């Protein structure tokens, strides 16, 4: 019994020493709702990105505005980066709760703490691998990023929903109220009481009978000495979180939004940097197409059932050329507008008797890539802005941008803008 109360005293002393004006229910709720909004934005935009890459039967996607995927994925990455300071701030506000006594009061309390642990752990893994993905540092985690990232998003949203349901009374109480902190910096509502049932061992150990009521049912010993005066005020705490979030946006969002381009110091890509002034993710050398893409024997084969037509590079040049201004918007968050020229995709498939409302499978010369073969839905195929691009910014495509021919379509992820095209197959 004495050891039990010694442990409880140690836990409470630790909790008491961590007291701060910013560590209170109101601060937790304020940071928590910002973090919740950021996670919901990431979930919505991430789900959209997942299904545009792997659509379910019957799914149809918008091709306008042309910047839809660019903005959606840019917001996804930026919101994910902001989750770092928000999540750490949330953990800071609740850190003393790790030392509550007793650590586990009941089986439901154990489940509550376990769900919180799952939420925190999965959130940290999710935003960390998401950040590493923007730099394409896949070697740092030995699992498939896209599938893991997608699965974890549901774990996070599910555990977040459970956490909100459990904490709803506290959230409701502190949603609009000012910080529940006294002028002395103590959390209000934790009053000191005298418990006539105090165990003899505790009285003999401490010489005191003062207890703090928690939820009106559980009593634990409280040191009568005041906690050290915190060095950081509530205002300073929130200012620090705001400055950290603003700094991250300012220093990285330029890869997604040109307005921040001048301050883009840490983004994975920089505007106007790369072959023909456009960044690339996967080079021709890495895709192992240097020989096949530049071969004089290269041909683009277009098929529709038994109808097949083969186009040489000169044949494609001889077709009516169209010019479009479209962004390359990659799943890693970076994007940039460029001017593309080439024949329309719907004109090419019309040459083999296919309707503009067809679904087309595009195959690349690229090797060792899950995106060497992609599928383009009818809403993109029939769009007048969808080209088989031969030129970029008025010049033939650089080999790293997909020479001799690549696909370019509005509001579509960069990984689906297939480079180094080999075949176009009408599927339906």
From TrEMBL:
The alphabetized UniProt keywords are: Membrane, Transmembrane, Transmembrane helix
Where is the Oxidoreductase molybdopterin-binding domain positioned along the sequence? 294-427
Query: What lineage does the source organism belong to?
Result: Bacteria, Bacillati, Actinomycetota, Actinomycetes, Micrococcales
Protein's UniProt name: Oxidoreductase molybdopterin binding domain-containing protein
| SUPFAM superfamilies (UniProt xref) | Oxidoreductase molybdopterin-binding domain
Q: Which organism is it from?
A: Salinibacterium xinjiangense
Q: Which InterPro entries match?
A: OxRdtase_Mopterin-bd_dom (IPR000572), OxRdtase_Mopterin-bd_sf (IPR036374)
Q: Which domain of life is it from?
A: Bacteria
> Which residue ranges does UniProt annotate as crossing the membrane?
30-51, 71-95, 116-138, 150-170, 236-254
**What PANTHER family has UniProt attached to this entry?**
BLL0505 PROTEIN, PROTEIN-METHIONINE-SULFOXIDE REDUCTASE
């Amino acid at each position: 019994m004495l050891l039990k109360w010694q442990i409880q005293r140690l836990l409470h002393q630790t909790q008491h020493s961590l007291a701060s004006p910013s560590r209170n229910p109101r601060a937790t709720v304020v940071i928590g709702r910002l973090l919740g909004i950021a996670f919901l934005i990431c979930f919505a935009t991430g789900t959209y990105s997942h299904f545009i890459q792997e659509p379910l039967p019957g799914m149809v996607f918008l091709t306008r505005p042309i910047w839809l995927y660019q903005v959606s994925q840019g917001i996804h990455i930026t919101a994910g980066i902001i989750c770092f300071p928000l999540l750490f701030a949330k953990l800071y506000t609740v850190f003393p709760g790790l030392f509550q006594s007793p650590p586990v009061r009941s089986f439901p309390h154990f489940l509550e703490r376990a769900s919180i642990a799952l939420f925190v752990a999965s959130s940290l893994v999710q935003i960390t691998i998401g950040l590493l993905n923007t730099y394409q540092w896949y070697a740092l985690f030995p699992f498939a990023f896209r599938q893991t990232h997608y699965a974890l998003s549901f774990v996070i949203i599910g555990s977040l929903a459970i956490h909100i349901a459990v904490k709803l009374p506290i959230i409701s109480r502190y949603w609009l109220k000012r910080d529940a902190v006294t002028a002395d910096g103590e959390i209000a509502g934790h009053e000191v009481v005298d418990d006539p049932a105090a165990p003899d061992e505790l009285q003999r150990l401490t010489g005191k009978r003062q207890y703090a009521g928690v939820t009106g049912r559980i009593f634990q010993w409280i040191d009568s000495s005041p906690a050290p005066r915190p060095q950081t005020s509530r205002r300073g705490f929130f200012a620090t979180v705001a400055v950290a979030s603003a700094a991250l946006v300012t220093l990285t969002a330029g890869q997604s939004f040109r307005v921040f381009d001048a301050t883009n110091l840490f983004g994975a890509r920089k505007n106007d940097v790369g072959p023909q002034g456009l960044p690339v993710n996967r080079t021709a050398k890495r895709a192992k197409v240097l020989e096949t893409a530049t071969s004089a024997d290269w041909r683009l084969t277009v098929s529709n059932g038994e109808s097949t037509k083969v186009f040489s590079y000169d044949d494609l040049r001889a077709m009516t050329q169209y010019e479009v201004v479209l962004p390359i918007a990659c799943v890693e968050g970076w994007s940039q507008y460029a001017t593309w020229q080439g024949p329309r995709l719907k004109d090419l498939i019309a040459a083999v008797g296919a309707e503009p409302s067809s679904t087309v499978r595009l195959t690349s010369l690229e090797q060792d890539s899950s995106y060497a073969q992609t599928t383009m839905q009818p809403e993109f195929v029939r769009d007048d802005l969808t080209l088989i691009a031969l030129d970029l910014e008025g010049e033939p495509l650089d080999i790293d941008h997909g020479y001799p021919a690549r696909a370019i379509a509005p509001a579509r992820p960069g990984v689906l803008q297939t480079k180094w095209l080999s075949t176009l197959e009408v599927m339906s």
